[in-house]
Amino acid sequence: MTVQRHTITLLSMAMIGLTLTTLSACSGLSASSTASTTQAQATQAMTMTKTLTTGEHLLVLPGQRSFSIGPDSPAQLTDTQTGQPDWQASWRGELLDAREMTANGQTVIKIVSLDQQNQLHLLTLVASTDTKSGYTLQQDAVSAPLQQPLEGLCLYAPLSNSQSANLQLFLLGEDAMARQLVLTPTANGSASQPHTTPLNTTLLRQFAIAPGAQYCVADDQRDTLYISEESVGVWRMNARAESDAAREMIDLTHPFGHIQGQAGAITLSQGSLWLAESEGHRLYQYQQDNGRYLGHTLLAETIAIDTLLTLPQDTRAGALDKHSGSLIMLDLPSLPAVEVTDVITTVVANGETQPVKKAGDAADDPAIWVNPNQPDASRVLGTNKKQGLYVYDLDGTELQELLVDRVNNVDLRQGFHYRNQPMDIAAASQRDRHSIALFRIQPQTGVVSSAGEIVTTLDDVYGLCMYQNRARQVFVFINDQDGRYQQYQILDSATGWQGQLVREFAVASQPEGCAADDRAQRLFVGEENRAVWTLPAEPDATTGMLEIASVGEWLHADIEGMDIYQTATANYLLVSSQGNDSYVLFNATPPYQYIGRFRVGLNAAKGIDGASETDGLAISSAFLGDRYPLGMLVVQDGRNLMPEQNQNFKYIDWREIKTLFDLQ
Question: Nearest to residue 76, comparing CAs of 93, 98, 100?
């Protein structure tokens, strides 16, 4: 094949002074991000390369290669300099998306497409050390035929520190439903077809979309999914499977927005979202971080863009000119775009508990009991705030169910006494009777049993945590939804445990989570919609509070569970930032610096989904066997997927977090 090259001049124009009152009202974006535009350069030259490669979709690859496919054109890898194919498949198809990755120092391209039998193909191309020599097909993983006809698809590769992280895929169906899948290729092919292997697909969630929505693209760094709806405009929503399927408008079609014709294909390029006017000659640009309109580019009126695709790190776009039926390559103008500086990386869940036995918002808060003689036989206590307290082993199997009514938060301490005999203790906030529910834990076996209640004078008890000072005295902090805290000392006696009120204090609005640093004799409390505070934990100490961090850049309301990870040299405070499904790590010693944040994502290899809307969490730094040699984090999961079930608790190996932040 030969390649024809033409240079055309494009006018890049900004629409100035247009106020989108309707758009601002329906999207929830700030006026500055929707109503104002930036002044683009007056004139820009862009190179358009018209190729003889056939098909409907074109992907420009690093080096001198491209990938194309169409209903009447086989999938093929082409040398863009000569026009000759390096490799050609036996199958044809439609729809295309890709991701560029690095593995063992080599560039790897993951490409997904749909063949004429409605089977997904996930291709793995590995670049040669000499990029001019092209790519080697390492694997073609093929799924079973899909049951639903498709309008569009797009890949999503959430950022993860796990080497086993899997690609996800959004499918836009003709039935006006979107489905989010995990793609898991098997390892080996057959002797006759060594590159062809089965592709397993696991449904994560499905949600409604507009009828006829054909185009989508996912922003991996910002966990954002964009969907183009032809007659309305372009939307964005959270791409994480554990998130709400709520959407917000980026831009509308005329007369309510900037899009003059109908919304068409979309792609991402170096921090910008590009939208092609459906079968038109305008390309619209938006900042990925806030959706702000940056301007539009006019192509020659003889061009009608139908498909548009880039690798997110590239500025070269492959497109179909519907007027001529030709595949073309465009160099997208490089206008300023805001980079993400504080990316929220994902760590994988290593285990999970069985679901709780009540539907809805039921699971709430965990605590970890360490078996001193057999660490891998340690236990996790978890509350079902509609029913009682559960006890699980480190495999997540339910061992005990204590039906003690509505207990919300739970905490425990080891090395105490009950009737003058060695006994570990757990406490939970009992909402039905405005009390502290107490539990005995057998020090050798971890068997839990009820040990009575301490009635408080609070009106609506909510959160709770425990503290054990240097004198081995045990205290319980319990709070009310109105902000009040009470501190009770737990006293042993011949008749069992008793509670003595020793201190009271308050925050200005609703609290819940709290955690005590026993070594530093310090308490950390969370005011859900405002801030994390710290104050001394001893009963005779001041109640003056120091703010550590407020709701804003790192913390998103509600501030929920929190706990301390502590070793001889390390001291960290972890807080659940429920509003954006993340966990924020601080140094637990003054001046309490922010360290970083992360999310808990799915582990496709083990069939464990991620965590979202976390209420409570618990951490232990103890050796808990070979699976958790540096301890573990347990978090409540507000949406239990793969398959969809009642809520549960997820287990995370602390080594994942240590590696992510290069901790002590």
Answer: 93
> Which neighbouring-strand residues pair with 439?
426, 450
Has domain 4-327 been given CATH number 2.120.10.30?
yes
Angstrom distance (rounded) from CA 467 to CA 473? 8
Tell me the C-alpha to C-alpha distance, in Å, between residue 158 and each of 312, 326, 516, 659.
13, 33, 34, 18
Nearest-angstrom CA–CA distance, 148 and 130: 41
Question: Token pair for residue 261?
Answer: 């014709």
CA–CA distance, 1 with 68 (Å, rounded to integer): 14
Domain 361-661 has CATH 2.70.130.10: no
**Residue 655 DSSP symbol:** H
**What's the token pair of residue 483?**
């902000």
Question: Which residue pairs from 89-93 have beta carbons closer than 8 angstroms and sit at least 24 positions apart in sequence?
Answer: 89/121, 89/140, 91/115, 91/116, 91/117, 91/121, 92/116, 93/69, 93/121
Beta bridge partners of 363: 384
The strand pair at 135-142 and 196-208 is best described as: parallel
Task: Label residue 434 exposed, middle or buried (CB < 10 Å: 0-12, 13-18, 19+).
Answer: middle
Strand partners, 107: 102
Handedness of CA 348, 354, 360, 364 (dihedral sign): negative
3-state secondary structure of 57: strand
Domain ranges of the chain: 4-327, 361-661
Amino acid at site 219: D
Residue showing tokens 């042993």: 492
Phi, psi (degrees; rounded to nearest 5) at 34: -120, -40
Q: How far apart are CA 652 and CA 628, in angstroms?
A: 8
CB 633 within 8 A of CB 654: yes
- Distance in angstroms (rounded) separating the CA atoms of residues 601 and 468: 33
- β-pairing, 224-229 vs 167-173, is unpaired
- Other C-beta atoms closer than 10 Å to the C-beta of 298 total 16
Cα 326 to Cα 9, 194, 199: the distances in Å are 19, 34, 32
Q: Which among 116, 5, 131, 12 is positioned nearest to 65, based on CA atoms?
A: 131
Q: How far is CA 461 from the centre of its chain?
A: 31
SS3 531: strand
The pLDDT value recorded for residue 249 is: 94
What does 151-217 look like in DSSP terms, one character per residue? EEEEEE---BS-TT--EEEEEEETTSEEEEEEEEE-S---SSSTTEEEEEEEEEEEEE--TT--EEE
For the entire predicted model, the pTM comes to 0.84
- The alpha carbons of the chain give a radius of gyration, in whole angstroms, of 28
Q: Quick: pLDDT tens for 220-254.
A: 989 999 999 999 999 999 999 988 889 999 999 99
* Sheet of strand 345-348: strand arrangement: 345-348, 594-601, 582-587, 571-577, 559-566
- The pLDDT assigned to 134 comes to 84
CA distance linking residue 69 with residue 13, whole number of Å? 32
pLDDT tens readout for residues 172-191: 999 999 999 999 998 765 55
Cα distances (angstroms) measured from residue 96 to each of 50, 68, 75, 112, 233? 19, 9, 10, 6, 21
Strand order in the sheet with 120-127: 57-61, 65-70, 73-79, 85-103, 106-115, 120-127, 135-142, 196-208, 177-185, 167-173, 150-156
The beta-carbon contacts of 567-571 under 8 Å, at least 24 apart in sequence, are 567/621, 567/664, 569/664, 570/621, 570/663, 570/664, 571/517, 571/519, 571/520
- Has residue 628 got a pLDDT over 80? yes
Per-residue pLDDT reduced to its tens digit, 131-155: 566 899 999 999 999 999 999 999 9
